[in-house]
């Protein structure tokens, strides 16, 4: 097989930008709506939402690579770094601290040029707790870097990256392209989502590290999007990618072949970006509705009712599956059936619940946000 970097025209990718125009237009509209929605949140809720988005991105970018880290460890690490420097508490999971460091650094340094030193710094973060001897540097092994799947003896090679001897020149060219295409007040060569799409595929094609390329490649895409709008993005790319992980890898491999025609990849990744934006909007609007809900019904609930409502809200925008029944209320609060019936009737009378279709023992309720 031959790969894109072996094409004499590498790395001059070819694509038709017009195929993504409709999504790019909708993306631009949603960008301003997202910023407006986050500005409506109370200060504490806005901070919590931004932390939640960083935690989600950290979790999902790790899950895509098969690494499972506890959400609370990541959250604690992010919050510790947002506190004054004299805070003494610490997080014991170095992987959680490393990926949290990456999330925060990508946000804080988005407007800076991308450098080799910054990539080495990011690699050191994502490889925390790793025994790999090649951390914070380009890979040096002489054997080919291959993306392989399948059982031993029947392996399938999906892709082979440029040899290690080419990495200095390949990454110099990549960094030059990325920084040269960074939008300024005077020029903007590429729409942000298209630049992010090309940057991600370009970086993954070079595959400069022994491990951690996916996480850093997605961070680069986020940096490109943040530079486009002039502020850190308010969504999680990795959450959307994880939900279509198989398609993501298929598109990456299909667009890493000898041909440099990547219109198919551009369409796919721009759509991923737009879907990430919509998912984030749902989350932010949910937080906004939740904030209004608590203000409206402040001090109206007994401890059992408050516990049940907190449990429903924990499910987020997707809602409490199947609705809240008397039986579920009993399970959540530990109360008797008579108490559950009385509490639910009180919540219904207050106007903070409404009945879902169904009667008798099948009666279910959901929150009335108004």
Structure, briefly:
Helix content is 57%, strand content 4%. It has 370 residues and is mainly α.
Give an account of the 3D structure.
Helix 2 (43-64) crosses helix 4 (94-108) and helix 3 crosses helix 4 (94-108). This protein is elongated. Strand 1 (146-149) and strand 2 form a beta hairpin. The protein contains 14 helices and 4 strands. It has 2 domains: 4-287, Orthogonal Bundle (Fic-like fold), CATH 1.10.3290; 298-367, Winged helix-like DNA-binding domain superfamily/Winged helix DNA-binding domain (Arc Repressor Mutant, subunit A), CATH 1.10.10.10. The model has no long low-confidence stretch (mean pLDDT 90). The strands form 2 sheets. The protein has a two-stranded antiparallel sheet. Strands 3-4 form a two-stranded antiparallel ribbon. By secondary structure, the chain is mostly helical.
């Amino acid at each position: 097989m031959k790969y894109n970097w072996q094409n004499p025209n590498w790395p001059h990718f070819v694509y038709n930008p017009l195929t993504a125009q409709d999504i790019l237009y909708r993306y631009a509209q949603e960008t301003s709506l997202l910023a407006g929605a986050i500005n409506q949140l109370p200060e504490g809720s806005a901070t919590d939402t931004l932390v939640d988005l960083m935690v989600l991105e950290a979790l999902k970018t790790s899950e895509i690579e098969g690494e499972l880290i506890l959400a609370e460890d990541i959250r604690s690490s992010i919050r510790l770094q947002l506190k004054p420097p004299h805070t003494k508490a610490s997080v014991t999971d170095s992987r959680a601290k490393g990926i949290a460091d990456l999330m925060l650094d990508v946000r804080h340094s988005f407007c800076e040029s991308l450098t080799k030193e910054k990539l080495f710094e990011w690699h050191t973060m994502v490889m925390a707790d790793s025994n790999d001897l090649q951390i914070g540097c380009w890979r040096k092994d002489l054997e080919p870097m291959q993306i392989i799947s399948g059982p031993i003896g029947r392996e399938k090679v999906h892709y082979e990256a440029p040899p290690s001897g080419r990495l200095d020149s390949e990454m110099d060219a990549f960094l030059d392209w990325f920084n040269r295409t960074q939008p300024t007040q005077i020029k903007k060569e590429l729409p942000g989502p298209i630049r992010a799409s090309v940057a991600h595929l370009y970086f993954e094609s070079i595959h400069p590290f022994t491990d951690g390329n996916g996480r850093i490649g997605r961070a680069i895409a986020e940096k490109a999007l943040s530079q486009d709008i002039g502020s850190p993005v308010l969504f999680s790319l990795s959450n959307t990618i994880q939900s279509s992980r198989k398609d993501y890898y298929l598109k990456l491999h299909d667009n890493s072949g000898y041909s440099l025609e990547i219109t198919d990849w551009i369409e796919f990744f721009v759509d991923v970006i737009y879907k990430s934006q919509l998912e984030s909007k749902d989350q932010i609007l949910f937080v906004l509705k939740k904030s209004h809900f608590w203000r409206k019904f402040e001090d109206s609930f007994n401890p059992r009712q408050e516990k049940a409502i907190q449990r429903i809200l924990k499910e987020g925008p997707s809602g409490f599956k199947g609705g809240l029944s008397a039986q579920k209320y009993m399970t959540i609060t530990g109360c008797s059936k008579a108490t559950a019936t009385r509490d639910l009737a009180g919540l219904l009378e207050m106007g903070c619940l409404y009945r879902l279709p169904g009667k008798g023992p099948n009666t279910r309720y959901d929150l009335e946000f108004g």
